[in-house]
Amino acid sequence: MARDLEKYLRPEIKSTPFCPGCGHGILMNLILRAIDELGESMDKMLFVSGIGCAGWIPSPHFNADTLHTLHGRAIAFATGAKMFNPALNVMVISGDGDLASIGGNHLIHAARRDTDLTVICANNMIYGMTGGQTASTTPLGSLSATSPGGNIYRPFDLCQLVLGAGGSYVARYSVTQPLSLVEAIKKALKLNGFSFIEVLSPCPTQFGRRNQYDSPTEMIALLLERCISKEEAEHLSEEDLRGKIITGEFTGARD
Q1: Residues 28-77: pLDDT tens digits?
Q2: Hey, where are the domains in the chain?
Q3: CA 70 → CA 54, 89, 138, 210, distances in Å?
Q4: CATH superfamily entry for domain 19-251
Q5: 3-state secondary structure of 95
Q6: Which of 38, 88, 139, 176 has its CA 20 to 30 A from that of 147?
């Protein structure tokens, strides 16, 4: 069923700043769909973001209260806002560089404290807006501005990191899995506790061009091929799992 999502956008905004083929526009749409399906009031929500491409998802687009904060400090600002006004439904939307590299300490401690926040990490596996540097999520061997010979360091598994730190609800989906992603966002918004959703989002400009992907379409096709469910993964050998990305819920929401 078609839904009118324009009511959630500021009327003066006529376009988005995302590069052609970027997955962040898809993610923005799916976040609003989840809010709409839940019937959440934007008046009771606060959206917090840091510096980076994903930081532009809520600000300036969402017709709601937004905080566009310092690089790596989105969760710190969100924690302060939640402590000051516990009635707010606070959602952090930012990128992997912002949340897991620059702001990794805030991420693990918010999970440890089980702070009542919904954190959505748009993971494009690189520093997209600041120049294409290697991030803590950049795959082994991938090229970047700071690893022209290929990244030599193992990337974080963000879901396992947050699980280990004590997050109440942890999930991973790609923008190529819209229905599952919308349901995960709805669960996270209803949770009383720390929820974290890693969203795989292609970056054709920085990651794609540096790693010889011919087009955004190729990057989307690769996500469709590589992303498999937890249930599928259970029946595959270690060799068959090489190169695959396991998606799904990694812990159930608890009250």
Answers
A1: 999 999 999 999 999 999 999 999 999 999 999 999 999 999 999 999 99
A2: 19-251
A3: 13, 21, 22, 27
A4: Thiamin diphosphate (ThDP)-binding fold, Pyr/PP domains (3.40.50.970)
A5: strand
A6: 176
